[in-house]
Amino acid sequence: EVLNLLEGEKVENVAAYVGCPVRVIVNQQGDDGTFIVTRADVEHKDHEIGREMFEKYTLNRRLSKDHEDAVRAFLETDPSSVEVAHLLKDITGKDYSTKSASNIMKKLKRVKGEGYKYIN
């Protein structure tokens, strides 16, 4: 589990364990809301690192409300998942596979509590 500092609660770690020794330990100090880094081991081991890898994680590819609205509007033209992947790259600057684009299409077509609502 990992401490979500913004929410003040622990969240599930979704990355696969590879034995990498990297860790950062941060302690909150008193009631003033300041934090102190008490340990920072930053040498990675047994996995790739970099912007390309970072952007593959779902958390880092969540769409903003404006981007969701743009994709929803585009879905009214009945695009393919390839076309949606291109749109997503254009508006976010990040690469999306056709599978990711397809999943986003399904998610955005779903109406909360009502199953699926197809836009046509």
Features of the shown structure:
single chain, about 120 residues, alpha+beta, two-stranded antiparallel sheet, two-stranded antiparallel ribbon, 4 helices, about 20% strand, elongated
- Stretches with pLDDT under 50, minimum 5 residues: 112-120
* Helix-strand string: EEEEHHHH
Main sheet: strands, sense, barrel: 2 strands, antiparallel
Relative strand content: 15-25%
Number of strands: 4
Q: Taking all residues together, what is the mean pLDDT?
A: 78
Given the structure, what is the number of helices?
4
SSE topology sketch:
Elements: E1 2-4, E2 9-11, E3 23-29, E4 34-41, H1 51-54, H2 65-75, H3 81-92, H4 98-109
Antiparallel strand pairs: 1-2, 3-4
Helix pairs in contact: 2-3, 3-4
Q: What is this structure, in a nutshell?
A:
It contains 4 helices and 4 strands, in the order E-E-E-E-H-H-H-H.
Q: Could you explain the architecture of this structure?
A:
This protein is 32% helix and 18% strand. The protein contains four helices and four strands. The strands form two sheets. A two-stranded antiparallel ribbon has the order 1-2. Strands 3-4 form a two-stranded antiparallel ribbon. The termini are far apart.
